[in-house]
Amino acid sequence: MELSRSEQKRRIKQLEKLVVELVDLPASLLDKLPSGEEVRELAKEVRGLKGGARKRQIKYITKLLRREPVEPLYDFLAKRKGSELLQQKKFHEIEYLRDILVEEAIMARRRAKEMQQELEEDWQSEVVRDITAELPAVDSRGLTRLACLFAMTRNKNHSREIFRMLQAARQQEELNRKVER
Fold first, then answer.
1. Which of 168, 125, 167 is nearest to 148 (CA)?
2. Helices 85-114 and 71-81: angle between axes, nearest 10 degrees
């Protein structure tokens, strides 16, 4: 799944919030950050900066972190501060998945109408295939059915149910990962 530019910008802003919380940690905790030495040193330097210099440094650290896996940093922050950033990140990812699924269903319905047909509940969805690859616990048939129903009726309850299904599948995946450890 290729991310739109808007979604890329939202994710960078989310990462920037993570960096702001990280640089506000005490110096003793910054030494324990699960990241590269360069990021740790830059985070320590930001503590003494104010105004524009601080913002520039935060943006630079954000740029460096785009190339690294950030899940360990979210986990580190959640353990140390009880940060809600990780929960927000997961919430936004699920919202994004729901939105692209609904968009695809609406476009599929438009194409079907142009050919004087109706969109079937078991239509082939590339987004559902991608979601299933990411979240194997999800009910792919239920997702395509709900997306089809939303495209036909625009009933927000269907959209909410898609979100709940994705959230439940994400939680199931997290539980499975914890059990495997």
1. 125
2. 130
Which residue is associated with the tokens 């808007």? 6
User: Is the predicted pLDDT of residue 32 greater than 90, yes or no?
Assistant: no
pTM, two decimal places: 0.71
pLDDT band at 167 (very low <50, low <70, confident <90, very high): very high
The CATH architecture annotation of domain 5-83 reads Orthogonal Bundle (1.10)
Number of residues that make up the chain: 181
The pLDDT tens digits for 99-119 are: 999 999 999 999 999 989 988
Residue partners of 26: CB distance under 8 A and separation at least 6: none
The structural domains of the chain, with segments of one domain joined by +, span 5-83, 87-180
CB 121 within 8 A of CB 87: no
